[in-house]
Amino acid sequence: MLVMIKGAGDIASGIALRLWRAGINVVMTDLPKPSSIRRTVCFSEAVYRGETKVEEVRARLAANAADALRLLEENILPVIVDPKAESAKELRPDVIVDAILAKENLGTAITDAPGVIGVGPGFTAGTDCHAVVETMRGHTLGRVIWSGSAVPNTGVPGNIGGYTIERVMHSPCAGEFRALRQIGDTVEAGVAAVGGEPLCAKITGTLRGILPEGFYVPRKGFKSADVDPRCRLFHCFTASDKALAVGGGVLEAVLMLTSAVGTARKPEKRGEDYGK
């Protein structure tokens, strides 16, 4: 079985970990300059470094579809710079997972593969994909939705250690990004500069994510860094509970879509129907 994951940020990487550990071949795609901030747990780092590791899984930048297949034979997870996932035409994956998390569908269609899964808001199961996996923290996190959509985006980050919007830093302007601190540092003031303007932490905690040095921030308000108030260094270098929960939902959906037994079962209700 081959699964293509569009996007290689932290949630997409948590999905990849779940699938890879279950023995499923995974190919990931991303932009030429990914904007992931939780870079220690993102396979997108392979785009910048050529090779990276998330927990125990190695990934390497692949030049094309043929190179990706060769890497899979070496038990290395391939990451392709392929914003439009055009390599799917050659790879012909059994399932495509859109984990870009753009909060909208940027072009994924239910006809793109035998199985198509949308992650988070912006997708409707039965219309532009076969299944949707919930990404909103709470009781339905990781649920597989077979009819309908995920909970709409609220614009408010999930609560971690009692903080929501305070733990995420957004750029004060467009411009070149200069990091003053690195992931794992304890911060309580300035962490970076964007276009010469300071980017400061709103709370004290461990810097869990930050844009790569030299990244050009395209606009004011761009998500640029993340502080974890729990101050546990371990959290900076391992996939989050949310990423793994979403990954578990995607794994369930993949098996349901590709198993003759699984597809014979009655699908679950849409996430928001639970408890009614």
What's the topology here?
Elements: E1 2-6, H1 10-21, E2 25-30, H2 45-49, E3 51-54, E4 57-62, H3 65-73, E5 77-81, H4 88-91, E6 95-98, E7 115-119, E8 124-125, E9 131-133, E10 144-145, E11 148-149, E12 168-170, E13 175-179, E14 186-187, E15 190-194, E16 197-200, E17 205-210, E18 216-217, E19 223-228, H5 233-236, H6 241-258
Parallel strand pairs: 1-2, 1-6, 2-5, 4-5, 6-7, 7-9
Antiparallel strand pairs: 3-4, 8-11, 9-10, 12-19, 13-15, 13-18, 14-17, 15-16, 17-19
Helix pairs in contact: 1-6
Q: N-to-C terminal Cα separation, in Å?
A: 37 Å
Mean pLDDT: 92
Low-confidence stretches: 260-266, 268-276
Q: Tell me the total number of β-strands.
A: 19
- Structural class, by secondary structure, is alpha/beta
Question: Order of strands in the sheet with the most strands?
Answer: 3-4-5-2-1-6-7-9-10
The major β-sheet equals: 9 strands, mixed
Number of helices: 6
Could you give the order of the helices and strands?
Answer: EHEHEEHEHEEEEEEEEEEEEEEHH
Percent of residues in beta strands: 25-35%
Radius of gyration: 18 Å
- Overall geometry comes to globular
Classify the helix fraction into a percent range.
Answer: 10-25%
